[in-house]
Amino acid sequence: MSRPPTAAQRRVIEGADAVTGRLRGTEAQLAALVKRGLAFRHPRPPHDHFLTPAGHRIRETVPAAAPEEPAPSAGVFAARVGGEEEAPASGAARLREVRSAWQGLLELRRMTNPGGATDRPCGWERTHLVRAAALALEAAGHRPAGPDGEGYRVRATPQPEAVAVYAPDEELLRACAATLERAGWQAGEYTEPRTRVRYLLASPRRV
């Protein structure tokens, strides 16, 4: 892509669904994004448009590239990775948000994985490892770590395509491993050499 998106195109990209990347805009706007490789038109009805990996990258840099049009923070879903200073609201509304986000992610797998497979992570998850693993855990009913330290924590690692998952006890750690494996990840237990803390090293499964 030789030129940055126009202001109108940035607004369409910025308004994409946070999980699936589904776009809303005029036919001309969507066609222009497809032409530039930032979106694709799904071949099945209702033929919605979705961000490509390049489009997702643009979306993530939109606030920096266009400070005059900051992305609204209200209403944007964020998976809980554990240890947030200001965790999203709990309760029935949060459960619905998590359930909807997880179903959206499964649909994204169906649309983008070869053969429509939903049993293994898709490209979006491989570029958003921490958020993807955290969503799988929260969607399964696990509790993210709060101020009391109880619950899971998902953290980035120096290893490519791998995240670390910490839990206060072995039972929760193994439960998290089982959840991630059901969600299409590979997970193994390891011990940090200095602290002797046990943790999971999890990676998206390819086959």
Instruction: Please give the number of β-strands.
Output: 6
Structural class: alpha+beta
List segments where confidence is low: pLDDT < 50 over at least 5 consecutive residues.
62-75
User: Cα distance, first to last residue?
Assistant: 32 Å
Secondary-structure element pattern, one letter each: HHEEHHHHEEHEE
What topology, given as strand order, has the largest sheet?
3-4-6-5
Please compute the radius of gyration using only Cα atoms: 18 Å
DSSP summary: helix tally: 7
Beta fraction of the residues? Answer: 5-15%
Helix content: 25-40%
Give a concise summary.
This protein is α+β, with helices and mostly antiparallel strands and 207 residues long.
Strand and helix map with partners:
Layout: H1 7-14, H2 27-35, E1 39-41, E2 49-51, H3 53-65, H4 92-112, H5 123-127, H6 129-139, E3 153-156, E4 163-166, H7 170-182, E5 185-191, E6 198-204
Antiparallel strand pairs: 1-2, 3-4, 4-6, 5-6
Written description of the protein model:
The strands form two sheets. The protein has a four-stranded antiparallel sheet with strand order 3-4-6-5, with helices on one face. It has a two-stranded antiparallel sheet with strand order 1-2. Strand 3 and strand 4 form a beta hairpin. The two termini are 32 Å apart. The protein has helices at residues 7-14, 27-35, 53-65, 92-112, 123-127, 129-139, 170-182; strands spanning 39-41, 49-51, 153-156, 163-166, 185-191, 198-204. The longest helix is centred in the middle third of the chain and has 21 residues, at 92-112. Mean pLDDT is 83; it is low at 62-75. It is an alpha+beta fold and 207 residues long. The chain is built from seven helices and six strands. Helix 4 crosses helix 6.
